Amino acid sequence: MSTESSMKDAFSTYADYLNNFNEKRERVVKVSRDITMNSKKVIFQVHRLSKDNKEEVLEKAGKDLEAVRDQHFARLMKELQGTDFWKLRRAYSPGVQEYVEAATFYKFCLSGTLCTLDEINTTLVPLSDPSLEPLQINILDYILGLADLTGELMRMAIGRISDGEIEFAQRICQFVRQIHRELMLVVPKMDDSYDMKSKMEVMLQSVIKIENACFSVHVRGLEYIPLLGDNAPTSYLLGAADVE
């Protein structure tokens, strides 16, 4: 009887652990979805950027990014801190990747530079319990988010070309090329990852699209003239007739 009783106690303990773990997982999935949704809003806000509203758009995007971090990311860290968070990585990874994408997209449009993993993790330290080891974004989720960034930059580059901001599109092209080149050196040394392989293929397509768009503008440059009454050197009108 004692053996049977001890087995029941052991299985009861396991059942409690699994139930608590599954409940935590559901909460983490919910928070990850909230992070994803609100990070997408930051990305959409940054896409409203133009040469006429840069300060206004980026100021709002910066505040929205802070809200994602302080409200939703703080909830995620509260759930994961002090636990075996690596067991729940699949549950929260999509939200973290989207946050990385939003943070790096915002930083590039603000300063033309890449927001590093250390910079992102530094902003998360104040959200952690000082008595515990701070929860940090891991390198894989950062790289996966960085791969997604190139897609947003491709869309922005095409939009800027349409608006006549050719130089900005060319800077984006150079930046995306550099990211792709560096990741090509890193990915072969990573463990087998289907997500990373598929994103590298999509990234290459983004690079090609930006290059083709910039190349087309360069080749057909003689067909473009400055907009009438506009002194901006990067504003162009395709196919306009010569003006005496």
UniProtKB/TrEMBL annotation:
Query: Ribonucleoprotein among the record's keywords?
Result: no
Supply the Pfam families for this chain. Answer: Translin (PF01997)
Annotated GO CC locations:
cytoplasm; nucleus
InterPro entries to which the protein is assigned, alphabetical? Translin_C, Translin_fam, Translin_N, Translin_sf
The entry's localization annotation reads: Cytoplasm; Nucleus
Q: So which domain of life are we looking at?
A: Eukaryota
What molecular function terms (GO) are annotated for this protein?
sequence-specific DNA binding
What are the protein's UniProt keywords?
Cytoplasm, Nucleus
Q: Which CDD domains match?
A: TRAX
Does the keyword Nucleus feature in the UniProt annotation?
Answer: yes
Broad class of the protein's primary localization: cytoplasm
Provide the family line: Belongs to the translin family.
The name under which this protein is listed is Translin family protein
